[in-house]
């Protein structure tokens, strides 16, 4: 058995919220957003997640083509949610094509994205991607817009100028839990900000936008290690967990380079080579076009591959990849040897913005209390057509 079985892997409702957004001066540190109750399993002992990624709203906003892509993307979300009934929706990065946005209204696209979720009274959690950071938009601004809606659970837990915004965790409790402080979590969901893109409202001496590092910062890794250890100590057990980050770690690149077998790791493998964290940076911190990979995500890879119970990490960013691969060995050109055999997975390009003509869709992840006892979960990809990608019926090995 694997931790993943079946790996076949409208109209938006708008509320009156002010146009535009400004970076948050103070971030609320919490593991629950607004007045939402805790995430819980269904009465049948299952919990399902729908992952929408690379939506790229707001692309080419000045012509007819761009707004039509946003309409098409909303249709994708609606079609998938007509077939699936998740307990949580994850917006896994690149919600908006920030470089096409205007300062005055660059975050208004959040309303279109979450409209289908609000209509169905679904709750969601986000990570932010490289296109969510640019001169006229920031993760802080998107977060502020998200939290004007009561269903958002995106709630940063790490502060600091280099941390990014979407770093936090969400516990999932037994059915019937109404107070998180009196319940024990069955599952932990980790969200990481891989940053990238450009810094908000900053230009260099030549008038060019200032690039932002494209990896999970070491301060976030330190927080993750401490928080994960703290949860294990508090509950005196290893709690099964899943992770989400927009840009994949370099280990995904190395696994792809070693060879993605369509019989063992089925799915699309068209982005060759994929674009990992720290791509284009030098080891000394330069980003001047002279280096291909700076290895700044090594600490992050060490953490995710040595955390007991962390079953899988889900990424987007590379629109032409949808495979899952168990990272169970030391890979060439790497010095991180995994311990927990974590599976590194891609979803499916959801939005009509962004590059590529692959059929749109969204990866689904479903866990059960019985399966989690063996650190197992099921996953499949629901396509815009309403079908499940029949190629992705592989089962990934246990941890």
Explain how this protein is built:
- With 399 residues, the chain is an alpha/beta fold.
- The protein has a single domain (4-284, 294-396), classed as Metallo-dependent phosphatases (Purple Acid Phosphatase, chain A, domain 2, 4-Layer Sandwich).
- It is 20% helix and 20% strand.
- It has helices at 65-83, 109-119, 139-146, 218-235, 250-258, 298-306, 369-372, and strands spanning 4-8, 39-40, 46-52, 88-92, 124-127, 168-173, 187-192, 198-203, 209-211, 241-245, 310-315, 324-326, 343-346, 361-368, 377-383, 393-396.
- A seven-stranded mixed β-sheet has the order 5-4-3-14-15-1-16. It has a seven-stranded mixed β-sheet with strand order 2-6-7-10-11-13-12, covered by helices on one side.
- Helix 1 (65-83) runs parallel beside helix 2 (109-119).
- It is globular, with a radius of gyration of 19 Å.
Rg value: 19 Å
CATH architecture descriptor text: 4-Layer Sandwich
Mean pLDDT: 91
Q: What's the domain count?
A: 1
Q: Strand content of the residues, in percent? A: 15-25%
CATH class: Alpha Beta
Reading the helices and strands in chain order gives EEEHEHEHEEEEHEHHEEEEHEE
Question: How many DSSP-defined strands?
Answer: 16
- Specify the CATH homologous superfamily: Metallo-dependent phosphatases
Would you give the CATH topology? Answer: Purple Acid Phosphatase, chain A, domain 2
Spatial strand order of the main sheet: 5-4-3-14-15-1-16
Distance between the termini: 10 Å
Overall 3D shape: globular
- Tell me the helix content: 10-25%
What count of helical segments does DSSP give? 7
By secondary-structure content and strand pairing, the structural class works out as alpha/beta
The largest sheet, given as strand count, sense and whether it forms a barrel, is: 7 strands, mixed
Which stretches are poorly predicted, pLDDT < 50 over at least 5 residues? 1-34, 393-399
């Amino acid at each position: 058995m694997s931790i993943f079985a079946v790996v076949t892997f409208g109209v938006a409702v708008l509320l009156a919220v002010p146009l535009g957004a400004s970076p948050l001066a103070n971030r609320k540190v919490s593991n629950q957003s607004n007045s939402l109750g805790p995430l819980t399993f269904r009465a049948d002992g299952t919990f399902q997640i729908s992952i929408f990624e690379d939506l790229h709203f707001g692309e080419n906003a000045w012509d007819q083509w761009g707004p039509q892509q946003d309409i098409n993307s909303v249709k994708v979300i609606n079609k998938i949610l007509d077939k699936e009934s998740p307990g949580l929706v994850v917006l896994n990065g690149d919600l908006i094509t920030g470089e096409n946005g205007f300062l005055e209204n660059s975050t208004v696209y959040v309303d279109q994205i979450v409209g289908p979720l609000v209509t169905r009274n679904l709750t969601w959690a986000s990570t932010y991607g490289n296109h969510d950071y640019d001169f006229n938009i920031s993760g802080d601004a998107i977060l502020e817009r998200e939290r004007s809606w009561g269903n958002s659970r995106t709630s940063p837990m790490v502060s600091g100028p280099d941390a990014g915004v979407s770093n936090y965790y969400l516990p999932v409790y037994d059915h019937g839990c109404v107070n998180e402080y009196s319940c024990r979590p069955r599952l932990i969901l980790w969200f990481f900000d891989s940053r990238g893109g450009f810094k908000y409202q900053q230009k260099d001496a030549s008038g060019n936008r200032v690039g932002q590092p494209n990896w999970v910062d070491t301060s976030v890794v330190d927080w993750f290690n401490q928080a994960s250890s703290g949860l294990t100590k508090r509950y005196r057990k290893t709690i099964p967990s899943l992770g989400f980050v927009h840009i994949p770690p370099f280990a995904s690149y190395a696994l792809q380079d070693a060879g993605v077998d369509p019989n063992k790791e089925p799915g699309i493998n068209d982005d060759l080579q994929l674009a990992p964290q720290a791509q284009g940076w030098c080891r000394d911190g330069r980003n001047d076009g002279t280096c291909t990979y700076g290895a700044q995500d090594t600490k992050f890879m060490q953490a995710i591959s040595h955390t007991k119970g962390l079953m899988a990490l889900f990424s987007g960013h590379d629109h032409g990849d949808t495979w899952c691969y168990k990272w169970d060995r030391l890979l060439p050109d790497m010095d991180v040897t995994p311990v927990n055999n974590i599976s590194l997975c891609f979803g499916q390009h959801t939005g009509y913005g962004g590059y590529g003509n692959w059929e749109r869709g969204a990866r689904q992840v479903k866990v059960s209390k019985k399966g989690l006892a063996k650190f197992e979960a099921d996953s499949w990809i629901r396509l815009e057509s309403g079908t499940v990608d029949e190629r992705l019926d592989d089962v990934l090995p246990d941890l």
